[in-house]
Design goal:
The protein is mostly beta strands and 115 residues long. It has strands at residues 3-7, 10-12, 18-25, 33-39, 46-51, 57-59, 67-72, 77-82, 91-99, 102-105, 109-113.
Length: 115
Amino acid sequence: QVQLVESGGGLVQPGGSLRLSCATSGITFSIYAMGWYRQAPGKQRDLVAVIGSGGKTNYADSAKGRFTISRDNAKNTVYLQMNSLKPDDTAVYYCSARLGSYQNWGQGTQVTVSS
């Protein structure tokens, strides 16, 4: 069974920080590309950041300079460090594991940025 379990979401004030974690099992983690997506109410699910199996990273323009994706292959875990958070960052954040045409998803973790 494939499992992706997100954690670390919560309520934070504008300008604050959160670190999301996605613990995986049931996959050969080191060969998967890992990504973070987010979906706000009434909106589409958008890519936030991706990290390839070799460690190359890419970010949505909205995330550049504020968010950092990283992976720890020894722990089968991918992280998203989020700094300088804005109310527009409020969304459910989903972890994704992709290998070729196959993509798995976690259940999501809520991030709310509000004063």
